[in-house]
Each structure stands twice: as structure tokens, then as C-alpha cells.
Amino acid sequence: MSEVAGAPAAVPAGPLATTVQEALVGLGGRPGVFKEMITVTVPRASGHDAARAAKEAGFDLLSDVLGIDWLNFPRHSGPRFSVVYNLYAIAANERIFIRIDLDDGESVATITDLWPGANFLEREVFDLFGVHFAGHPNLRKLITPEDLEGHALRKDFPLGETPTLFNDGRFLDPASFRAGMIGRSRGLTGWVGGARKGVVSEQVERPAATRADAADRKHES
Length: 221
What we know:
Elements: H1 15-25, E1 30-34, E2 37-42, H2 47-57, E3 61-69, E4 81-89, E5 94-102, E6 107-109, H3 118-129, E7 132-134, E8 164-165, E9 170-172, H4 174-181, E10 189-191, H5 208-220
Parallel strand pairs: 2-5, 6-7
Antiparallel strand pairs: 1-2, 3-4, 4-5, 8-9, 9-10
């Protein structure tokens, strides 16, 4: 496996993914692996060239375009947002992810000229994260109402939530839950005695004969 001088070595992968990694390293890409999934992070200016190189090499299916907001995420450093392209090579049965990091207000080039199906996928990321895709033919909201201010999957989007109460008395407090998910707190749930108002929770022991009949039916099936 060859290396580009001054660039990270490619991560072990299938033959096709290895070839693409080497090409993306030549574009300034940094390969990485997580749970045996190969990701190459490329400079924002090289995003379109990287996607084209992957497609021409055989990654012919665009499975998804994903947005990530790293705000307050533990151990994260660098730009706040990432756009990730999930690419699959049908004939070779290989997958690779191309990632672009960017700050709020920066844009990435659309890949709708390479995969027309990226149209709605990029609109979804634009709608929910506010990432702008330069050159997109019709970049407008896809999921949320036109008059909704802000982007619903940004970590600082005001949710206006209320606690969720379960029948057994447990409840989820949204603020505490969010703090636990980003590593600020271990306390995700609260506890209050009794069941939800208006609900009676009972556990009644079934007669022995009933239990035996159920066991026989399960054995027969």
C-alpha cells in the first residue's frame, strides 16, 4: 500500500476502498476507521473532487448524506459541523464514508451533478442543520415548516420540552437527558412514586393452571 509523502497512511480496507483512500489522501484527505467503517475526512474545498473520484472508482451508490453538529460534544475539536457522504460500491460490496468539516456559515459544493438523488438528501441537511450546499438547484426546506426559525437538529435549537412520565413512575427530564447524552451528567432519569395520574398499574399472579396451559402451547408451537 503506497503512501503520499507528508500525509497519513491509508487504513486497511477492501481493494476498492484502498484505491479510493489513496486518491483522497492525494486531495488532502485523512483516513480513519471506526467499528471497521472507513472514513476519509477531506478539506472542504476538495469535497466535490473527492466524491467524483470515489464514484469514478466504482462507488456508484450514494446511500445517504448526513449532518453532524458537534456542539459541546466531549473531546471534539475543530469545526462545529460535519457533512458525511455514505458511499457504496455495489459490485465490490464495499462501503466508504467521505467527511467534510465546516464551521457555521461555510458551505460545501453540491454533488447533485454526480448523484441526482443527492437533491433531497442535501435539502434535508440544509433544513435540519443549516448547512448550505453551493450550486444546489433548489436548496429549500424539506421537512420543517417554511416559517420555522432555526434548524431543528442543531444542538442549541430551543425545544420547549416537557418531562415524559411513564406508568411505573419513572420520568425523563429533557434537560438532564441531554446533559447525560453529551457527557455532562450521569443522571438521565428521575423517579417519583406511583403511576401516572389516572392509571392503575397492577401485576396479578395467574393461576397455576393458566401458566401450565401457556407453557404447553408454547412447547407445541
